[in-house]
Here is the input.
Amino acid sequence: MKPNPRRTVIAVMTLAHQRAKKAVLAQLRAKGLRPAQFSARDIAVMADGYYAQHMEALITEAVKDVMTWPGFARWRCVNLNTNAQAMEPCSVTTISVQKS
Here is the structure.
């Protein structure tokens, strides 16, 4: 079964968004606030803002994780290209993760 490049992009973007949400939750806790005081929508909006500000670093870190975590081994045979870093483990296809 050939790797599906679309699934790789989805995995990278999901990891990046998850990290943005975790960072927002950590910021709220650092301010002495409880995440339960906020609606899921409010947290999602704050996470989207954080993601927009730190997109390049979040995506670069997510690409690195997809390329090194054993659970993502079946998707590694794709080229991922971000603005900050290019990873080319094999030559199946090229995927560009661009700012949206």
Notes: The helical segments are 5-30, 40-68.
